[in-house]
Amino acid sequence: MQKDDERMVHSRGEEFLQVFKKGAEFTQDLLKENERLRFRVLELEKFQTSGGEAGSGADLRKLTERIADLEAEKQEILDRIKHVEEENQDFAARYLEIEDENNNLANLYIASYQLHSTLDFKEVLQIITEIIINLIGAEEFAIMLLDEKSDEIQAVATEGVERSEIPPVRLGKGVIGEVATSGESHFATDFDAYERDFTAPMVCIPLKIKEHVIGVLAIYKLLMQKKEFAPVDYELFTLLAGHAATAIFSSRLYSDSERKLSTIQGFIDLLTK
Amino acid sequence: MSDYNVLIVEDSPTMRQLIAFALKRIRGVRIVEANDGVDGLKKLSSERFDLILTDINMPIMDGLKLVSLVRNDANYKAIPIVVITTEGAQEDRERALALGANDYITKPIQPTKILDVAKSLLKIA
C-alpha cells in the first residue's frame, strides 16, 4: 500500500517536471520573440529619424505635383479634343456646302455649255426648255421674246400650256411688260396661294444681254414635288437671263444671216447664169 | 478596264450630261448613253451593265416599257434600274416600282441624290 503511494507521488513528480520544462522552453521562446520585436521597433525608429520621413515627404510632394501636371495636361488634351471635334463638325458642314456648290456649279456649267452648243434657234429654245424642266423643276412656262418693231412680247416656246393660250403683252404693261421694261425679275409673294394667270406669272425672269432685254421667261406652275425655290434656282435664273438671251440672240442672228446669204446666193446664181 | 458599267437612257442631252457628271464621281465608272428605250435595249445587248438609269417620257419607247422588258429578260433581269422622271405622283412611283424599278428619283435633278442611289445599288460603301 505504501509502495503504491510512493509510485503515484513519483509519477506526479515526473509529470510536474515535464510541465515545468515545457513552461521554461515557452518562456525562452517568448523572450527571444520579444527581443526580435524590440530590435525591429528600434530599426524602424532609426529609419524614421534618419531621414525616411523627409524622403517620403519629398516623394509625396513630387507625386502630388506630377498628378497636378497630369491633370492639367489631361484637361488641355480634353480641351483640344473638344476643339478638334468642333472643327471637324465645321469641316463636315463646310464639306457639304462645298459639295452642294460644286454640284450647282456643275449644273450651271452644263446648262451654259448646252446653251452655247448650237446656233439653231429651235434647238436653243429646246435646250432652254430642258433646263427649266430638269434643273428648275417648272411644269408650265413660256419663253417670250420682244418684237422691237411692235413693242410686243410674244410666246415663242411653251411647256405644259398651248402657245396660243399665252396672250401677247405690250411693253410696260402688266407684270410681264414691267419685267421687260425694268429688267428686274418678278417672284409671286406666295407660291402656295398663286393661281395661274397668263398675264401675271408666278415667276418672270428678263432675258437680258447686258441691260438690253430681248424677252422674258414666264413660269406659271412648278412640278408637284418642287415646293419652293432653292438658292441655286436664283443663280440659274440669273444665268438663264444672260446666257439664254445671248444664245437666242446669236442663233437668231445666225438664222437671219443664213437666210440673207441664201437670198444673196440666189441673186448671184441668177446674175451669173 | 472599268469597274462599273452604267447605262443612261434619256432623250435630253442636257440631262444625260448632268446624270453622267454626277456618276463620274464613282471611281472606275464607265458611262454609256442611249436616246430612248429601243436604243437602250440595243446597247444592253452589246455589253454587260451594272446599272441602268432611265427617264420615263421618251420617244419611240418610254422608260416604263424598258423597265418591263428588262425585268422579263433572263439575261438582264438582275441589273438594277433607277427611274429619273418629272412625274412626282405617288401612283407613278408605285407603277414604276411594281414593274421592277429599284428606285425612283424625281426631277429637278439633284446630283447628290443620283450619286447616293447609284452607289447604294452598285454596293459601293
UniProtKB/TrEMBL annotation, chain B:
Domain Response regulatory: 5-122
InterPro entries, per database record: Bact_response_regulator (IPR050595), CheY-like_superfamily (IPR011006), Sig_transdc_resp-reg_receiver (IPR001789)
The UniProt record lists the keyword Amino-acid biosynthesis: no
Keywords: Phosphoprotein
Gene Ontology biological-process annotations: phosphorelay signal transduction system
Modified residues (4-aspartylphosphate): 55
Classification via Gene3D superfamilies: 3.40.50.2300
Phosphoprotein listed as a keyword: yes
PANTHER family in UniProt: CHEMOTAXIS TWO-COMPONENT RESPONSE REGULATOR, STRESS RESPONSE REGULATOR PROTEIN 1
Listed name of the protein: Response receiver CheY associated with MCPs of class 40H
Organism annotation: Citrifermentans bemidjiense (strain ATCC BAA-1014 / DSM 16622 / JCM 12645 / Bem) (Geobacter bemidjiensis)
Organism taxonomic ancestry: Bacteria, Pseudomonadati, Thermodesulfobacteriota, Desulfuromonadia, Geobacterales
